[in-house]
Amino acid sequence: MQTIKQYISKHKDRFINELIELLKIPSISADTAYSQDVLNTADAIMSSLKKAGCDIVELCETPGYPIIYGEKIIDKNLPTVLVYGHYDVQPADPIELWTSPPFEPVIKKTEIHPEGAIFARGACDDKGQMYMHVKALEYMTSTGNLPCNVKFMIEGEEEVGSESLAWFVPRNKEKLANDVILISDTGMIANDIPSITTGLRGLSYVEVEITGPNRDLHSGLYGGAVANPINILSKMIASLHDENNHITIPGFYDKVEELSKEERKEMAKAPFSIEAYKDALKIDDVYGENGYTTNERNSIRPTLDVNGIWGGYTGEGAKTVIASKAYAKISMRLVPNQDWKEITELFKTHFENIAPDSVTVKVTPHHGGQGYVTPTNSIGYQAASKAYKETFGVVPIPQRSGGSIPIVALFEEELKSKTILMGFGLNSDAIHSPNEHFGIWNYLKGIETIPYFYKYFTELS
User: Fold this and answer.
1) For 223-234, what is each residue's pLDDT tens digit?
2) Which runs of consecutive H residues, i.e. helices, occur in 223-378?
3) How many CB atoms lie within 10 A of CB 242?
4) CA 88 to CA 35: how far, in whole Å?
């Protein structure tokens, strides 16, 4: 019987080419201009699951984009693994910063990926990592190595808040019943230092609109006499952090979990070079909340960041106006125990209160989700750890992530299941940024490692 390494060696080129074809489809869920492309990607995923060995594959309609459900049930008495992933991707903007077109995948060698990496939007987040599971299933079904049951739930709205998934899951608890949920939408420390994500931050995302005069005004005739919404917005945003980079919203930190010195000491054991970190980002120094390390700031502490700001004239040349309106998009990454709806309301109240009477404020909540911590003493974590040890040769390090996958907390609430986050991307893969990529080595290593999770989870259950 073929081993997973032998199977990958035989089918390597096909695995890579199939992913490249998937990456060519611009499934941008945030932009309705790409609606048909999102649906085309769903069709492609359905076809792939059928070919990989699922006995049932369904296109499940929702109020938004459809969810792809697939299953391979070999024995109802055996454990069931539910695989979650998403087929939508972030917008590719700014296009001009890409070194190759975002939806024309190319393989390039890099210092970190000497075997080559696929450059394309969605390569790592999450088409490449999701597709590892499809190919792992193909191996297990075609060689008779599937030790337990498997279900797939692949959605098309993760990058815009998973609103339809939140509608779908409570209505399909029986269909989605499982013993553990497996997700690859995170990363690891390095190719020679595997890690398993044990914590995720929550998220609150809002848009703010500041309105001053009823129209754009001549900055000479009205400047100095009428409030400038862009100036006002800039001051309001600046006031959201104090001199220690502490967020100033009243009540914001009331439920923030403070880790013990012992827990912070364990976190500090993860290999990290501040110089390499700065060099990779081409910055002279790091920045953040006083009293915390860089790794703590981006994982166990909440944040508030402006993701976009605009207003007035931004075209070529000069136009001397005081804009009627100014806008910003703001995201807050939250830690476990902070409720995203409560934080959104705290932000809204505070932002409205700090505005001067000369302007009006509108705060529009977009989406959010709760943080999550998975225990390292669970059967699922132990199975994942053994799987990494099998293929990497070393025990993986548990690590909290600064990212958010809001639906993980929803899964535990509705399906009563723990989630295991087996990510194979790297921080340098530029997810959500121009020139996103995914190492071919990482892609194939994920396909190699995933079947061992099934093996050990079945043995330990």
Assistant:
1) 999 999 999 999
2) 229-238, 261-267, 274-281, 294-297, 340-353
3) 11
4) 10
pLDDT for 76 equals 96
Nearest to 205 by CA among 246, 159, 257: 159
Distance (Å) of CA 187 to CA 15, 122, 423, 425: 20, 14, 4, 4
Calculate the CA dihedral of residues 393, 384, 453, 450 and round it to 10 degrees. -70
Query: Using one digit for the tens of pLDDT, what is the confidence trace for 277-294?
Result: 999 899 999 999 999 999
Mean pLDDT across the chain, nearest whole number?
96
Residues 6+ apart with CB under 8 A from 34: 26, 27, 28
Q: Are 319 and 182 in contact (CB under 8 A)?
A: no
Tell me what the mean pLDDT of segment 108-123 comes to: 97
pTM recorded for the entire structure: 0.83
Least confident range of 34-43, 257-266, 353-362:
257-266
The Cα–Cα gap between 179 and 228 comes to 56
> Residue 133, Cβ neighbours under 10 Å: how many?
26
Evaluate whether 203 touches 332 at the Cβ level (below 8 Å).
Answer: yes
Kindly provide the b/e burial profile for residues 18-29, where b requires at least 16 CB atoms within 10 angstroms of the residue's own CB: bbbebbbbbbbb
